[in-house]
Specification:
Shape: globular
Radius of gyration: 22 Å
CATH superfamily of the largest domain: Type I PLP-dependent aspartate aminotransferase-like (Major domain)
Structural class: alpha/beta
Order of helices and strands: HHEHHEHEHEHEHEEEHHHHHEEEEHEEEH
Number of strands: 15
Bound molecules: pyridoxal-5'-phosphate
Number of helices: 15
Largest sheet: 7 strands, mixed
CATH topology of the largest domain: Aspartate Aminotransferase, domain 2
Distance between the termini: 21 Å
CATH class of the largest domain: Alpha Beta
Helix content: 40-55%
Strand content: 5-15%
């Protein structure tokens, strides 16, 4: 049975990278081993393991950054709280695309949402002494749990698969009623499943956050990328759905990486609600020397982590947001390609014996976007992950993401349309060799 990639090369490189079980391989482990297999075999993989934006960044951002560098931004330390134009455009952006009022003061640039999350966990986990645990509504972005492990902070999680819609309330409340949960985190649209919480679900989360005095960290890494509705028009609904409509206890994390294809510049916005920004927590004082939430975040946590965020990049993001706010730059249109690719790629998988793992949003079929999840009958996620390597297809196991389901996360961003023919051929070969007769 000849497979598209020489199995000996795959096995040797897995051993060289000390990957004994695929369920233990992180995203970066898979990236490394596939790089090595590609080099040795001379074959290009269909790479679906990592969410690297595969599109060009917005020109308006690059031009503004160049100008900022010409104007001397490189030699000056940026203010910790961020440059004024970015804070102001960020606040307008949230009004225009979410219909939420949030003052410029609460908009803080961070070195990607990665740093935003780290800083948020640090603050949220230390506000109240008995509340020392972060709750993940999984599946989720694996490295956020690693961040908590690095900080020696506690977390709990559950897979939302069986708890969509009304069922979310009791499940969530069972965690919150214990009294140890400081904050809740989820991404919406979701990495890895691309599920999107609907208004009822966000209302449940927001109302329970109020009832149990818990801070919600809403990770909007894929802002406005639920392409089922047009969220691209400034000041015109429908808007990016948000828990901010139901609680004041929230932090939004808006990444520039995917929506603006700006991952390399490492900038995101941590957006703290007006009420939370000014709220004082006695418990913050002994740890950070200050008790106001917003002040602690900026002048203790962001200060000590990185002394702010790259100066010129702040000008780049400010220019992109301004252009989007003024209706001159439709950032959603630029990334719709991901949804179109997903639609075609999902069909190729489904036509070749695969199933979708997370297939709907309560009563709606799932949107097509940056990720989708797949399984193959009779195979565990790790088995499937490894077998697909012999066919030149790489992805990550869902167990990495806190999912209780067997399957893989497939990311469409690095798979250009010119690779679809290869993908189809490889999937056909895989199905021919692996399907079990009924
Ligand atoms: C859900 C989620 N949160 C955060 C991030 C990190 O974003 P950034 O590149 O802004 O650090 C990602 C990136 O893949 C993500 O998927």
């Amino acid at each position: 049975m000849k497979t598209p990639i020489n199995p000996e090369i795959v096995d040797t490189k897995l051993a060289a990278c000390e990957i004994k079980k695929m369920e233990d391989a992180t995203i970066r482990d898979v990236v490394r081993v596939v790089n090595m297999i590609e080099e040795e075999s001379g074959e290009k993989f269909i790479r679906m393991e990592m969410g690297i934006p595969g599109l060009k960044p917005a020109k308006v951002g690059i031009e503004a950054e160049k100008q900022a560098l010409e104007d001397g931004a490189a030699s000056a330390y940026p203010m910790l709280e961020g440059i004024k134009p970015l804070k102001e455009e960020g606040s307008k952006f949230i009004k225009n695309f979410m219909n939420i009022d949030l003052s410029a003061e609460g908009i803080i640039p961070t070195v990607g949402s990665m740093q935003g999350g780290y800083a948020a966990f640090m603050a949220v986990g230390n506000c109240t002494s008995e509340k020392d645990t972060i709750l993940f509504i999984d599946p989720g972005f694996p490295v956020q749990k690693t961040q908590l492990e690095v900080m020696n902070q506690k977390y709990e999680s559950f897979d939302v698969f069986n708890y969509r819609g009304d069922k979310l309330k009791d499940k969530l409340e069972a965690f919150l009623a214990k009294g140890n949960i400081a904050g809740i985190i989820y991404s919406n649209p979701n990495n890895p499943a691309w599920i999107c919480f609907n208004e009822d679900e966000l209302k449940i989360i927001g109302e329970l956050a109020n009832k149990y005095n818990v801070i919600v960290m809403e990770d909007l890494a894929y802002f406005a990328m639920d392409f089922r509705s047009d969220l691209s028009q400034p000041g015109v609904g429908p808007y990016q759905p948000s828990v901010a409509n139901y609680t004041d206890n929230y932090i939004l994390m808006i990444s520039s990486s995917k929506a603006f294809s700006y991952a390399g510049q490492r900038i995101g916005l941590l957006c703290i609600s007006d009420k939370l920004f000014h709220r004082r927590y006695d418990n913050l004082k002994p740890r950070f020397g200050a008790d106001e939430f917003g002040y602690t975040m900026i002048y203790r946590i962001i200060y000590t982590l990185s002394s702010g965020t790259s100066h010129s990049t702040q000008y780049g993001l400010a220019a992109m947001l301004k252009s989007a706010n003024e209706g001159n730059f439709n950032f959603v249109e630029d990334v719709k390609e991901y949804g179109e690719r997903a639609k075609i790629m999902k069909k190729l998988f489904l036509d070749n014996g695969f199933d979708l793992v997370y297939g709907n949003d309560v009563n709606l079929p799932l949107a097509d976007g940056f990720y989708f999840t797949i399984s193959y009958p009779g195979m565990t996620g790790p088995d499937l992950n490894k077998k697909l390597l012999y066919y030149g297809i790489s992805a990550i196991c869902l167990n990495e993401t806190g999912s209780m389901k067997e399957g893989l996360r497939a990311c469409v961003s690095q798979v250009g349309r010119d690779r679809f023919e290869d993908l189809e051929y490889r999937l056909k070969e895989f199905h021919k060799h692996n399907h079990v007769m009924a």
